[in-house]
Amino acid sequence: MRKIISFMHISLDGFVAGPNGEMNWIKVDEELFDHVGKRIKEGDTALYGRVTYEMMENYWPAAGKKTTASKHDIEHSKWYSKVHKVVLSKTIKEAGLTNTTIISDNLSHRINEIKQQAGEGILLFGSPTATHSLIQQNLIDGYWLFVNPIILGEGIPLFVNIKDKIKLKLLTTRQFTSGVTELNYMVDRP
């Protein structure tokens, strides 16, 4: 069965965005881009909430074609154009979208169908609202967290309304020169 891995930047105090969705506190550099570029090749499906998907669609399809495109922009743009996208949304319509599936209802059933299909990993990028829904239905199999060296004090938390404990097994850690620390966990299911 395919696994859903949540890919998320997070503050030391557990927030994934500021109170108004701000993400200007996230540290990214070439070292981190290179590492993430290698890791995302392990997935052939990208899972997004509507807001994150719309941000991605507005940037990545053309990002690699710009004359000022960085190595990261070129590589990620190519990956984005090939990867199958799954979007959790009640407002987006699937008509006319290429290589994209919209899930608007029966979340648990539809996600489990996708997990049963042949393929590689399913990477859940950002999307705090979608992540909260998937956590509450026990559909996330792992967390790939990039802990940024900042305490926000307030914002959008990664973990909310957790009904049952979620036991995790730490697989790897990595410290980047920027001060960001990668924590790679799998859910420890009995």
Describe this structure in words.
It is built from 5 helices and 10 strands. It is α/β, with parallel strands linked by helices. It has a domain at 32-121 and 135-148. An 8-stranded mixed sheet has the order 5-4-3-6-1-7-10-9, with helices on both faces. The chain has a two-stranded antiparallel ribbon with strand order 2-8. Helix 2 (50-63) crosses helix 3 (71-82).
List its salient traits.
190 residues, alpha/beta, eight-stranded mixed beta sheet, 10 strands, globular
Helix/strand layout:
Blueprint: E1 4-11, E2 15-17, H1 30-40, E3 43-49, H2 50-63, H3 71-82, E4 84-88, E5 100-103, H4 107-116, E6 121-125, H5 128-136, E7 142-148, E8 156-157, E9 168-175, E10 181-187
Parallel strand pairs: 1-6, 1-7, 3-4, 3-6, 4-5
Antiparallel strand pairs: 2-8, 7-10, 9-10
Helix pairs in contact: 2-3
In short:
With 190 residues, the protein is of the alpha/beta class. The protein is 29% helix and 29% strand.
Number of strands: 10
The parts where pLDDT drops under 50 for at least 5 residues are none
Chain-averaged pLDDT: 92
Q: How much is the radius of gyration in Å?
A: 16 Å
| SS-based class | alpha/beta
Overall geometric form: globular
First CA to last CA: what distance?
16 Å
Main beta-sheet strand count, sense and barrel state? 8 strands, mixed
Instruction: Work out the oligomeric state of the chains in this entry.
Output: single chain
Q: Return the string of H and E elements.
A: EEHEHHEEHEHEEEE
Strand order of the largest sheet: 5-4-3-6-1-7-10-9
The amount of helix comes to 25-40%
Strand content: 25-35%
Q: Number of helical runs?
A: 5
